[in-house]
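Honest question from a wet-lab person: if I give you the sequences of every part of a complex, can you actually get the arrangement of the whole thing, not just the pieces? Trying it with mine:
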Amino acid sequence: MLAFTINRFAQSLVVMFFVALVAFAMFRYVGDPVHQMVGIETTLEEREALRVELGLNDPFYVQFGRFVGNALLLDFGVSYQHKKPVTEMIVARMPATLELSILSALFALLIGVPMGVYTGLNRDGFLSKCFMTVSLIGISLPTFLIGILLIFLFAVILGVLPSFGRGTVVDIGGWRTGLLTVGGLKALIMPAITLGLFQMTLIMRLVRAEMLEVLRTDYIKFARARGLTNRAVNFGHALKNTLVPVITITGLQLGSIIAFAIITETVFQWPGMGLLFLQAIQTVDIPIMAAYLIMIAMFFVVINLIVDILYYVVDPRLRIERGVRGT
Amino acid sequence: MALLEVKNLRVEFPTRRGVLVAVDDISLEISEGEVLGVVGESGAGKSMTGSAIIGLLEPPGRIAGGEIRLEGERIDNLPYEQMRRIRGAKIGAIFQDPLTSLNPLYTIGRQLIETITTHTDSSDSDAQKMAIDLLAEVGIPAPERRFDSYPHEFSGGMRQRVVIALALCVNPRLIVADEPTTALDVSIQAQIIALLKRLCRDHGTAVMLITHDMGVIAETADRVAVMYAGRIAEVGAVRDVVKDARHPYTEGLMGSIPLVGHDVKRLTQIEGAMPRLTEIPAGCAFNPRCPKAFDRCRTDRPELLSTDGTTKAACWLYDEESVHG
Ligand SMILES: Nc1ncnc2c1ncn2[C@@H]1O[C@H](COP(=O)(O)OP(=O)(O)OP(=O)(O)O)[C@@H](O)[C@H]1O
Ligand code: SF4
Ligand SMILES: [Mg+2]
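Yes, you can. This is the full assembly:
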């Protein structure tokens, strides 16, 4: 177990190294940092002085080393546009994105898995066929369209939910949460559904397909032949065997939920990291973009690590093969 | 009264192109503690008969006629929940591929305990004691230690022993064993068959042993039923069927004597092949291949008739004898 974890951890480090390299290249070579920071009236001498002061004349590896060192200390420099430390800006926006993403993921899981199990067990039931048809809509409609439709229905026509923003938020030790007020929760509903709908249908279809597959196996037939109760067979034996692929996809999906929050945040003007990133692109605010890139990569890597360890916990066969499963 | 009585069993598969009859009017009996061998070429309907008996026909397959009685009680028309209580407790099953019969995510101990506590009131610790004793009985070395092992930590032969332990752990009266050794290495097959035979004798369990291997039948079974195209061609004591077959199909099967390891599946002595379910001929299903076929064979279907030997055969050659006693 320890060797396995260390192995996976080392791989994660390699991945992060390359992401840092890309982020740094972007930071350093897309446009000229000095040009971005100074006004038009700054003289060439002043520019050169700033260049030396920022260390932009140092050799590549020195600069990269400094970039990584700073990143480890969570220092990503100062935003060109806002003249504020990037880390501070991202941290201030993070609760909004995380609350939205986690709620979406929970929505996707807590609804998607039971629906998948249900449609898998009652393959030809009327309700299953309804679920499958509706899920096609979830898969094929683009996220922004779902968001706009929801806004149209619930905010414009019915007027029961706010169409943008986080509603009322409460500040708890620097974490601005929308989970504690009715207004904040109401504001979360539509964005969370918009963001989670695709993942929910995906998880539902995956669980269904896996259930159908597992229900055909010999050990399920043998479990029935041993006279185990339906509950034990379906939930004890079958469901557990669908978990490995479900964990993989869910883990990867959680990563993409955080990444794809950009679109939802734009539709609902949700003040999260995604919106910040989008604005940074419009103003070519490279430090924010670099920091965002590294952060998202970090989320992916950490989630992947957790997924791998979960595999290991769920499936005893991996414990002796000691092999590392690619994802 | 026989332990298991199957009367005029018919198993059908509704398909788009019409109804396929996989098991067509089969009757057989198994007494307490008896081993009944069932042989036949691939597709003869052996597994379908077995699945119908344990009540686990896979849809769209269904029992379309006849009845199945266990200890005199009908079990073919029971609601799912009632049949579930019988499965495992009174009728155990071992399937074609024992290697994949165990859930890979649970220890064998857990799977044993779960089966025992489902059917009895034993506590987990009693069930554990029973399970360990049973593992020792099926020849798992150091059963206390292996109790918490996962299936993948066992070899094929050992896994098969665990499967046998699982099928026997609540002491059923009958075990339906569908080709229990086909997936195993040849060197292990004999051991496993011997183990199954010994255990069932010790526990007084009857066995319906489905196989292609006449050698296994000859060594293990008391009686044997030969199946052809969803019907029983001949049934009788093993010795008689092997040495003194009356049905032309069985004669052909036994004609090539090297008995041990004799594989019905690869049999080529009889010209042609068993008909597919969609093209079973009228009259005797065997008539296109039968060297002794005559007119009646092509129009009327023969019942199982007493022969001039000790077996019963579904063949018109024995019609006169049956009429005159
Ligand atoms: N789902 C199905 N739909 C239609 N026909 C089926 C289906 N399942 C099985 N059959 C047919 O039922 C017949 C009997 O099959 P069965 O599995 O009982 O044969 P078997 O004697 O056990 O053969 P084997 O030795 O290959 O195991 C076969 O002809 C098979 O093609
Ligand atoms: S009934 Fe006729 S065709 Fe069928 S086995 Fe007997 S002789 Fe042959
Ligand atoms: Mg079969």
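Two things worth pointing out. DSSP finds eleven helices and twelve strands in chain B. The first helix of chain B runs from residue 46 to 54.
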